[in-house]
Amino acid sequence: MEWGYAGPIGPAHWASLSPDYAPCAGGIQQSPIDITGYGPAVGPVLSFSYAGEASRVASARGPIVVEFASGSSLTLGGRRYELLSAHAHAPAEHRVDGEEFAAELHVVHEDASGDALVVGVLFRLGGASPVLQAMLDAASGGAAALPPGAAAFMPRSNVFYNYTGSKTTPPCQEPVTWVVMRDAGSVSAEQVSALQSFSGGPNNRPLQPLRGRRIVLIGG
Ligand SMILES: [Zn+2]
To answer: What DSSP line would sit under 70-116, residue for residue?
Structure first.
């Protein structure tokens, strides 16, 4: 079922577009959220093992998606999640203490039992982002532009906000373990408009209610 970010197929109508999209309105732990009210916690250790190649870049129907060959993963508290794909939102979906960001990278993982974990990386407006540029170059189809491999997506530090939420696109399935990196990158205005020209305009879902969920800052 077709959905989008504006008009009659926009986020306020997602749940009515298909019975499969019911969690978009009826879910109780939806994403994105404003990340605030968090406390430092001694949390599960996060470690990345990103080494695999990208298998392909797709952008035919919306945002640029990089799909990865198998072999890259992360572990959180000893649980292993396989790296599947990455895509970007512009503007960002999550906020931190009310701050709005210009773009957000979502790096999607799944464990052996099918549980999802998404790493979110926020970008402030500023200098160009190398990893977003690599995605744009690959999607633009230049012969020399190979899709960026997994290592290009490795966060520079391991300090992160952790909470339980959902996918931010239909069917908005929950739960999703969210790992939103504290350290933001930078993205240029040109890159924001290039991302939006692939996605057909802004592709950020509005903030969802926190409903008493706990957010922790780990590694800080
Ligand atoms: Zn996303």
So the answer is: SS-EEEETTEEEEEEEEEEESS-S-EETTB--SEEEEEEEEETT--E
